[in-house]
Design brief:
Elements (H helix, E strand, L loop, with lengths): L15 E5 L6 E6 L6 H7 L4 E7 H17 L3 E7 L8 H13 L7 E6 L1 H13 L6 E5 L2 H7 L4 E6 L2 E8 L4 E5 L8 H18 L1 H16 L2 H21 L14 H10 L9 H18 L5 H14 L17 H11 L2 E2 L2 E7 L5 E8 H13 L1
Parallel strand pairs: 2-9, 3-4, 3-5, 5-6, 6-9
Antiparallel strand pairs: 1-2, 7-8, 10-11, 11-12
The structure holds nicotinamide-adenine-dinucleotide (NAD) and zinc ion (ZN).
Zinc ion binds next to helix 10.
């Protein structure tokens, strides 16, 4: 992965580039304030002459005019399909509506799908692009922090099934990602914080220096410091790009990106995936605290590191515990959570696979966490 120009050389305010090295499927991520307004010129430079913009109602009201204006200035023909916001749009019904709308617009093989929105729009539009006319190119313009550092980068696209989330999809890499930090100014604080949990995850996995930087800069980043946002987004995209280049179709190293997610998914599932009660990133924050507490209780990681993780999430305003008051009065039970995790992960001989850590920045995949140790941890967490 190369990055040009390097941060130190870039004039203040200049966008930064992260290259995702995937041979013929390689692409650039452009990070900076105002890159949305450059979309037309950047698409034109890729030879794109016609686009279908996919966005949701909320993002359309805030940011669609900047995109259509930019495409118009570049002479790129463009249509739009506006979908309802929310996870329910990532469904067969949502996909059918989008595909039929795109076909009604008379899309051709050379039409490019432009996804303007959060992970919901990116996953849905990316999957539609993967299958429309047997495959169209697409461009991601992620508008949430989570999408800018995670969902827009790996090439995973999907919709949900009644059997679970993201079960119907395709690997399909974008031609270009434009991560405009200014779009985050309109994002609700709770959504921003949820994305921040996944930012911190990259530090906790294998970059202790980045986590230490976040301990200093996390609060200003959340408050709106553009340079801090840009620095963090570039760092996360570089990290994800590195992993994706090593493991495009998720057979090995990508597993560490699931730090905090086994716990997190169990919490989300117990609350019926209700975003009003618990957002994915909030669940992952609690899950990472639990993964570090479990690692410390197994003697693998220093207790001081587990305490730092908890303290940092508390400092920025993320949830770290299971107190029912935060979740509309709905508490958790140890058996309920263990049952969810059993279903989520393969259990063999009373042991489960988990992402644990030997300390901050030292995550590893453990194949043999004993259920008894897990149960003891959950009993402490539920009682706290
Ligand atoms: N493909 C992947 O690798 C990958 C990785 C992680 C998550 N995901 C998926 O991403 C989805 C979650 O993405 P998300 O957290 O971005 O949620 P989201 O797309 O639902 O966006 C969250 C909310 O913020 C609103 N919003 C978006 N941008 C805004 C802005 N700039 N200003 C104001 N409001 C804005 C949206 O309308 C929505 O209501 C899930 O479906 C998840 O499965 C995919
Ligand atoms: Zn996640």
């Amino acid at each position: 992965v190369t990055r040009a120009p390097a941060r130190d050389e870039a004039a203040d305010g200049d966008p930064e580039l992260v290259r995702v090295e995937l041979g013929a499927r390689g692409f650039d991520i452009v990070v900076g304030a105002g890159v949305l307004a450059e979309a037309g010129a950047r698409l034109k430079a890729l030879g794109i002459r016609r686009a279908v913009i996919v966005t949701d109602e909320t993002v359309a009201a805030l940011h669609l005019p900047a995109l259509t204006g930019s495409l118009a200035r570049a002479g790129i023909r463009h249509d739009r399909v506006i979908v309802p916001p929310g996870e329910a749009t990532k469904s067969f019904d949502g996909l059918e509506h989008l595909m039929e709308s795109m076909l009604a617009l008379g899309i051709e093989r050379s039409t490019v799908v432009v996804a303007l929105g959060g992970g919901v729009v990116g996953d849905l539009a990316g999957f539609a692009a993967a299958i429309a006319l047997r495959g169209l190119d697409y461009v991601q313009i992620p508008s949430t922090l989570l999408a800018q550092i995670d969902s827009s980068v790996g090439g995973k696209t999907a919709i949900d099934s009644r059997h679970g989330k993201n079960l119907i999809g395709a690997f399909h890499q974008p031609r270009l990602v434009l991560a405009d930090t200014a779009l985050l100014d309109t994002l609700p604080r709770r959504e921003l914080l949820a994305g921040y949990a996944e930012v911190a995850k990259y530090g906790l996995i294998d970059d202790a220096a980045f986590f230490a930087w976040l301990e200093q800069n996390g609060v200003p980043l959340i408050a709106g410091d553009e340079a801090a946002r840009r620095h963090a987004i570039v760092a996360c995209c570089r990290a994800k790009a590195r992993v994706v280049a090593l493991d495009e179709r998720e057979s090995g190293p990508r597993a560490l990106l699931n730090l905090g997610h086994t716990f997190g998914h169990a919490l989300e599932a117990e609350l019926d995936f209700r975003p009003d009660l618990l957002l994915h990133g909030e669940a992952v924050a609690i899950g990472m605290v639990m993964a570090f507490d479990l690692s410390a209780s197994l003697g693998l990681a220093p207790a001081a590191d587990a305490a730092r993780v908890r303290r940092h999430f508390e400092a920025v305003g993320l949830p770290t515990g299971l107190g029912a008051a935060q979740f509309g009065g709905r508490g958790f039970t140890v058996d309920g959570l263990i049952e969810r995790m059993r279903r989520d992960k393969k259990v063999r001989d009373g042991r489960m696979a988990f992402v644990l850590a030997r300390g901050i920045g030292r995550a590893f995949l453990s194949q043999d966490v004993e259920i008894d140790a897990l149960r003891a941890l959950l009993e402490r967490a539920v009682a706290a």
